Fold each of these.
Amino acid sequence: MNFFCSVLNLVYPPRCAVCTNLIEMGLDGNLCSECLEKYENNKGITVKYMCDTGVKNTSNLTRGYAVFQYGDVKKSIDHFKFKGFKNDGIALGKIMYEVAQKNFPYVLEDTDMLVPVPVHKKRFKERGFNQSEVLAKRIAELSGKLCYYNGINRVRYTAPQSGLHPDQRLINIKNAFEVNKEIDFKGKKIVLVDDIFTTGATINECAGILIKCGAVQVDFFTLSVALHK
């Protein structure tokens, strides 16, 4: 098996889950030496309370955290999300969990369940997976928390948020989600998991419908945040 893996690595050299560069020979894991050093010193980002994020769409949210600034992992997210490298999400989910445990463990300890931000079934079919679900499931495995991957459903197909003005994002995402009525959210503390936090429109909309169903606290935890200055 080790010989087979060695041959496979020669044919398909492993790439870093963060920067997508080739991993140096002799290194174990999913990170190159440069990203490993950055990751070990990563303190995460408290999103909700950062005055330079331009955050205003967080009225339904209690707290928010991210691991990287988006610019630092843009290539990684493109590789994972748009090029079909689903297994990258397993490594990235582990990084999210470990950074949280080191810097803000309460975000996972003080919750009843993880809920990934959903994608529409059409987009799911195009990609073959929901990137937020991959991250959330990995975090749940490591933390021992429940993960309701189908806690929220995206019932309306919308234009990608990335190409829209912040005000247009609010309109675009309105009434795009429904909760799974088979799950009891009453009295629950929930962490929404996503890959990118930009303006907060999508996550705040998801939080709003969870609160309407009785959730008492909704936080969010994302792989990255796009800072606005």
Note: Strands lie at 45-46, 64-69, 113-116, 146-147, 152-154, 177-179, 189-197, 217-225.
Amino acid sequence: MCVKAAFLSLLVFSFLLTGCGSRQFSQGSYDDISEDRLLDDKFNESDMRQIADTMIKSLTESLVIREAKTPPIVLVTLVKNRSQEHIDMKSMTDKIKVALIKSGRFKFTEKENREEMAGETEYQEQSGYVDPATARKKGRQIGAQYFLTGEITDRVQEVGSKKYVYYKCTFNLVNIQSGILEWADEKEIRKYYTKKSVGF
């Protein structure tokens, strides 16, 4: 009898351990990326999308772009993270750059690949392996007319079980020749959370 009771106790204990352990996600489905999902209190893809959509619309409708006779050549710098969170600013910067390219209203120079482009140009000109008629020449790159810069800041307020998270993202378009700020805009996002009591 004691053996049977001990066995049952062991089964119950094992069941409790299994129930309290981590669960494996074994079944899933595709989600609508346009829908907002606030699974935690961190900066997420919905915030990034809202910021990008606002800035792209504002910039493409700005006076400096509407009056441009040809698509302006822009150098996009990495958006600066002034917030308390770790945010993938490369993804933010790329999202805005890709959307602006798709609009057909801008042309871009690439800063990240300058060393590679310089090396390739030097190879084509000096290695002797490339037909001079097709080799790219130094001094033929088109200079950017504008810098597109941006930064994101945040502020967090917690009172009791309530928490407010506020983000502000600011972008600037600077004329490289004159140093004049030709366009600027900002997007504000505020999210509200409540803490749930944990029951035992």
Note: The beta strands are 73-76, 80-81, 107-109, 146-159, 162-175, 181-194.
